[in-house]
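Researcher: Structure prediction, please.
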Amino acid sequence: MSASTASVIVVGAGVVGSACAEALAEAGCRVSVLEAAFPGAGVTGAAMGHLVVMDDSEAQFALTCYSRRLWAGRVAALPRELEDDACGTLWVAADDEELAHVRKKAAYYAERGERAEVLDADALRRAEPRLRPGLAGALRVPDDRVLYPPAAARLFLEGARASGATVETGVRVEALGPGRVLCADRWREADLVVNATGPEAARLTPGLPIAPRKGHLVITDRYPGFLRHQVVELGYLKSAHTLTRESVATNVQPRRTGQLLVGSSRELVGFDASLNRALVARMLRRAAEYLPALPRLSALRTWTGFRPATPDKLPLVGEWEKGLWVAAGHEGLGVTTAPGTGRLLADLVLGRPPAIDPRPFDPRRPMPAHG
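Model: Predicted structure follows.
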């Protein structure tokens, strides 16, 4: 397909859809973005906003590394509203067994050229004095960052507009198919359509192996200096990527505003958006096991969102059928992987050699059933 002639409709102006729109528009495609509410209103607005390298699989590591490098290339020009914070991540080991895993994790990163540092108990206490005594150590990943997700979606959309894309908000897509979308009883046509609607993707494209996974987040009042790093318990990966009905794991972020964002929980309950107060209490108790002073802080708000989860923990990025492409299923890594997803999708659409192997993200790949 010629970049100079391809017309593309991107459905969804979350951070992933917006990044796809930017990459396609920069490549010369004639891009239209349709969003039911406003940019970043859906799963992006309920995200934590971490830019992290994750090593649950080689494919996940490749995509998160690639994306974080793309993010790093934009840091100098990021607007203030993104609230970019180069805080790094501490993967905290509670005991010697977990510390042994930290060392393996550090070796894995080093072998692949990513910076990571093992902290013993004393070094951890100096790095984060508010963590409870007795922890065995941590892995510090200094190049990880935190930012404000809705502003990230707007950033990519501005880039898309600068390359000629149009953006329409308040436009609900009722159905879509190869090369066309239905809005308000009128079909719009293009050379191809990109379904980037996160947890809604399977509603618009039946058969996509994506399920909504609800999460709760709590944000505190402003306590500047309370925390220096994003603090994540080492068990987070297992919790985040095991499709059980309910789970919690500690993930606490300092924000540029001085606030703390506390997570995280996961539930498989469909699109039930109600607060599960017992699960929130369990999540906060878990976080307090690592940060004992946390219960003394004032919480301002609790909310829920739906992460688009796939059974094999990897997003769907590529062609579903001729004229219909997918960029969804990133679960909790949409903000991290948005720029890499956009570039990968654009490379595939235009027949360019991609920077990373696209096969693990093929929407048509064999997939286990959801648990």
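Model: The CA atoms of residues 11 and 34 lie 5 Å apart.
Researcher: Thanks, that helps.
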